[in-house]
Amino acid sequence: MQPDSQTAAVCRHIVHASGRSFPEDILDEARKCLMDWLGVCMGAYDAPEARKVAAVADRWNTRGNARYLWGGSAAAPAAALVNGTLSHCLDYDDTHIPSVIHVSAPLWAGVLARAAETGASEELVLKAFVTGFEVAARVGDNGIGIRLNNGGWHSTPTLGPLGVAAAAAVLMGLDEQQTAHALGLAATQASGLTASFGTMAKPLHVGKAAMAGLLAADLAAEGVEGAAGVLDRGSPLVRTLLQDGAAELAMAPFEAGWEIRRNSFKPYAACQLTHSVIDAGRAAAPAVGSRAIESIRVVVHPLAIKIAGVRDARTATEGKFSLGYCTALGLKGYPVTTQDFTAERLADPALVDIARRVEYVADDGLTRTAARLEIRLADGSSVVQVVEHAFGSIGNPMGWAELEAKFMALATPVAGADADALLACLRGFGKPGSMDQLFMLSRRREGGRR
Questions:
Q1: Helix, strand, coil content of the chain in percent (nearest 5)
Q2: What is the band of 446 on the pLDDT scale with cuts at 50, 70, 90?
């Protein structure tokens, strides 16, 4: 690792994170991420993907102080795998829009698992999370994450492990050289195909990213070496994944600003690229009324069609990646929560009829959070609805009140009367004992883990 290289600058930033003073509003952004992450995890406690991954992890018989959210303990990599998978089962977790990475999902799973083993303070936990977020988001910025997804690579499992490894390095007190090797070892585990979207493999992507980042840090601490210049300009990671030679890893300096401020939260339990059409459908619904629809043109950014272009959705995962089905939900006024992706809702004749009338039109002049609906009605009239910034995106963010309402809806069926105490814990996370309280209160009150 060259001392004046981009990788060296990243490693210095990571190594000095524990002694750095973080602005309170940035720590508050981390708390928002934690609250949203825990809520979507709790809402997925019965998800078959998470249960099956947990069954495999149980058979490993690992030992450690890291905890599964629903109860029980394991070694940190195993707990990170399970909790990370759990966090993405609903596809309801936050997204850093510029990089198209679900940063919080693998990062919080990895940070909490490693912190339980190291005995880190809650203050250091927050610092580690923010540091990991800033690293992963910067690697995926400047079009890298977008191009990865366009090329068939899922940006979350390809770049997410770098953020987890960075955060683990903070919690473990790795030096600069060890940190460089941890990043190299995380990079060599990059994987995850967009072809897996709509299958159980997509939430596994997140769990594996969390596990890979922790494994990388563990190996580096043990003296295992990786490609120590993996984040330099001319990055072998980027040049391998994007082989046309047109991409350059030029990470913004850390002093240039905070990427966590460009994070977005999901008001709807579907792929973020569908949110603009949901908003447009909801806004157009009063003008459409009960009149019959002849056809709908959904005009969106090309990436939305590539990632969320599923037609004739028959399963929950397919529905979450179907612009047509999500448009229908919006036009019919549904809130687009997890209940709107059940088999019964997916088979609703009215929704199916609308979804089948939707034509997808790509327009690279639109941003990824914008959409235009052009609805032609059977009586010959038309309704046009434009959304510039989907709710939850950087230009139209969710505030604390909306995030708290989302959290309570997801957490209350699990935590019962303790949901209020859990919310208060998350709002004040950073106080001594708040991590133990988080795990105690997030357990299911009745029925246990299985």
A1: 55, 10, 35
A2: low
Q: Is the pLDDT of residue 51 over 70?
A: yes
Q: What are residue 299's phi and psi, to 5 degrees?
A: -100, 120
pLDDT tens-digit series, residues 265-303: 999 999 999 999 999 999 999 999 999 999 999 999 999
Measured CA to CA in angstroms, residue 390 lies from 126, 146, 289, 321 at distances of 28, 18, 22, 16
Stated pTM of the model: 0.93
Q: How far is CA 178 from each of CA 173, 217, 310, 377, rounded to the nearest angstrom?
A: 10, 8, 43, 63
**What Cα–Cα distance (Å) separates residue 354 from each residue in 228, 230, 379?**
53, 48, 16
Name 358's bridge partners.
296
Q: What is the DSSP string of 95-124?
A: EETTTTB--HHHHHHHHHHHHHHHT--HHH
Strand partners, 66: 74
Whether the predicted pLDDT of 445 surpasses 90 = no
Complete domains list, the chain, with CATH? 6-264 (1.10.4100.10), 272-387 (3.30.1330.120)
At residue 447 the predicted structure's pLDDT band, cuts being 50, 70 and 90, is very low
CA terminus-to-terminus distance, the chain: 48
Average pLDDT on 200-216 reads 97
- Average model confidence (pLDDT) for the chain? 95
What are 58-89's pLDDT values in tens digits? 999 999 999 999 999 999 999 999 999 999 99
Average pLDDT over residues 325-346: 96
Main-chain dihedrals φ then ψ at residue 43, nearest 5 degrees = -65, -15
Higher-pLDDT residue of 234 and 207 is 207
CA distance 13 to 29: 19
CA 293/CA 373 separation, integer angstroms = 12
Residue pair 161/106 in contact (Cβ under 8 Å)? The answer is yes
Where do runs of H (alpha helix) occur along 141-274? 144-150, 155-172, 176-187, 201-221, 236-241
**How crowded is the C-beta side of 260, counted as CA atoms within 13 Å?**
27
Residue 263's beta-bridge partner residues? 96
Residue at 235: amino acid letter: S
